[in-house]
Amino acid sequence: MRIYRSIYGLTLVAIFFATPIFGHHGFTSIFDMDTVLTFQGTVSRYDWRNPHVYIYVETNTTGETVEWQLEGDPTPIMMRSGWTSTILSPGDLVTIRAHPDRNTERNHGLLTSLTKQDGVFLTPRSGSRISNARASSLEGVWDGLPGFNTRTFVYGALTDKGTAAQAAYTEADNPTSDCIPFPTPTIVAAPYLNQIEILDDRIIVKTEVFQVERTFYTDGRDHPVNGERTNQGHSIAHWEGDVLIVDTTLFSDNRFGNRSGIPSGSQKHSIERFRLSDDKTQLLIDYVIDDPEYMVDPMTGSMSWSYAPEREPMPFACNPENARLYELQ
User: Fold this and answer.
1) Exposure of 326 by Cβ count < 10 A (0-12 exposed, 13-18 middle, 19+ buried)?
2) What is the predicted pLDDT for the residue at 224?
């Protein structure tokens, strides 16, 4: 580490091997992820809502009171990391570490840790415990957080339309600002709990974030002709040995549907492969997405979920006012 710069009497440190923290919008475009700001201040407001918890901290190091807006994770992830809705109150003295906004005119940061005056140390995303339990099938509760930093999104060439859309994208375009869930692959790659139920004619996957429920029909049906297009699309599935193959089409338009500012449209088609790891502690997921309106080459990637039978998904109510906060970033 080295001292990078100082503003408002606050210390900012350049970190060369920082672990990135990502949420429902493009943090790397908003926050300087290579820099950590450290300061002390007093909590002025604690906003315990979804899709992101916000902590407002006042500091006065130059004779002028400045209020910082600090963005945390959604309430389920923070609760599993030791936070509660009452753990902070206005007037609490805290020490903050955060990635600052790239726009230095804004007192805005992405929280990495908070230390209370009594020594309680909290981070937004530390509640993932590796379980020794082994699954006997895909059924059960799975945690997307342990494998979050190893997930991959691989793009090839974009069409002219896709290139133009990516260049014009701003975070205010993200449909999650209206509490619209993200589709595959982002919903699968999100760091939340997922509960899988295997029935005779279908498999149901309930995802904690936005309370999304996906249904994979396994009764031999095909996709409906001219069927309704929806956010998560229409999925049919079959088994190839121990591997579940999920075929999804009929996605509705989404401005961030293929991530990285690339929309998805009526021609989007995904294939996902779900299988247990050799030691049965992880669910390994690979995907291929074709969307010829925006991508010349297929988008590919992988992620993993960890078996977490001792956990239960938590409620996730998206607050529209809270969701639109990042439009200002």
Assistant:
1) buried
2) 97
